[in-house]
TrEMBL record:
Gene3D superfamilies recorded: Ankyrin repeat-containing domain (1.25.40.20)
Species, as recorded: Gonapodya prolifera (strain JEL478) (Monoblepharis prolifera)
Name of this protein: Uncharacterized protein
InterPro entries: Ankyrin_rpt (IPR002110), Ankyrin_rpt-contain_sf (IPR036770)
Signal keyword on record: no
Spans of repeat ANK: 78-106
Length: 338
């Protein structure tokens, strides 16, 4: 699909979202519009050449003005996304369509509002950096959906061009935002992350339904660390059962196949307070080897620990499978945690 075709489809999607045209949204997405499409906003400042004999400001920046009759300076930026517009207007059907098409829930939602300025105040030396009056930024779609109250948005249109803006009404429009439970539920279903800031905003707004929804979602969706701990717990249980089977096999005459038996030979004579662990553990600090029988460990590495000692040393397996005969005995002194 040609870039120009995509650009046209994106522009059509933005216009459909702003007008609440669900059929137009579906048509645009079918034509290849990005569900993450955004508006573009341009500020165009013109300065006509003064009549002969009239003192005028001289503009010397390269490329600032492009012809002798009229000086033109343009700066552009991206504006609100299609998803932001649908959330703003409370159009749960359009939000649903965009999310199903792949709109990113955890991308920042942000846009800028143009500065109004009389032509005589335009300074070409600083104009490009001072053209925008304010920036609105939200960490993700959920953070934006939790907002309440009056917010400023750019004028309607997929490609907004502001010519010599001098009045607030020319550069923005006001909307009153109200969080919607159905929109927030959709965002959560599609993977939107909840932050402490979102909870604070919901609680301060006095909307108990929204704050309760976010709290319940956090309870039902543990963090990655909790998931990791749950996985480790299950692995520990499996490994313990495997070790019991191996020990029973050895007791009844079988040949041991796991590599922990010779580990004591690698430990320093000063090691004391031996404690059998036989569990998967995670290093919460690192260890730099000083001897050949030690290993490099970084925080976050997972180790199968057979024995730990009061002086901080431990021995076990670098791999998570302690019964692999090919395992090399190791010892290290990182801080460990289950």
């Amino acid at each position: 699909m040609h870039k120009s075709d995509v650009a046209r489809a994106d522009a059509q999607l933005i216009r459909a979202c702003e007008s609440g045209d669900m059929d137009g949204v579906a048509s645009s997405l079918k034509l290849g519009a990005s569900p993450d499409a955004r508006k573009t906003v341009s500020i165009r400042i013109t300065r006509r050449r003064a009549p002969a004999g009239v003192l005028r400001r001289t503009f010397s920046i390269k490329g600032s003005f492009i012809n002798s009759e009229e000086g033109v300076r343009v700066v552009s930026t991206t504006g609100e996304s299609a998803l932001a517009l649908a959330i703003r207007d409370g159009r749960v059907d359009i939000v649903h369509a965009l999310l199903n098409a792949g709109a990113q829930t955890n991308r920042p939602i942000e846009w800028q509002i143009a500065r109004t300025m009389p032509l005589e105040d335009v300074d070409p030396q600083t104009w490009a950096t001072s053209a925008w009056n304010s920036s609105l930024h939200y960490e993700n779609a959920l953070s934006f959906a939790c907002q309440k109250g009056v917010k400023f948005f750019n004028p309607p249109g997929a490609e907004v061009e502001l010519l010599n803006p001098s009045d607030l009404a020319e550069v923005c429009q006001q909307f009153v935002l109200r969080p919607r439970v159905d929109v927030i539920e959709l965002l959560l279903t599609h993977g939107a992350k909840v932050s402490a800031v979102d909870l604070d905003v919901a609680r301060s707004s006095g909307d108990n339904a929204i704050s309760q929804l976010l709290e319940n979602h956090l309870i039902k969706s543990p963090s990655e660390l909790l998931r990791e701990l749950d996985t480790l717990s299950k692995e520990n249980e499996q490994l313990r059962n495997r070790l019991v089977a191996l020990e029973q096999k050895e007791e009844f005459g079988g040949s041991p196949t796991w590599g922990f038996m010779p580990f004591g030979r690698t430990l320093s004579p000063s090691a004391f307070g031996a404690k059998e662990v036989k569990a998967m553990m995670v290093a919460v600090s690192g260890h730099t080897p000083a001897q050949l029988d030690e290993i490099q460990v970084s925080g976050g590495h997972r180790l199968w620990v057979c024995t730990s000692f009061l002086d901080g040393w431990g021995n076990g397996s670098w791999d998570s499978s302690p019964w692999h005969a090919s395992q090399t005995p190791i010892k290290a002194r990182p801080r460990l945690a289950y």
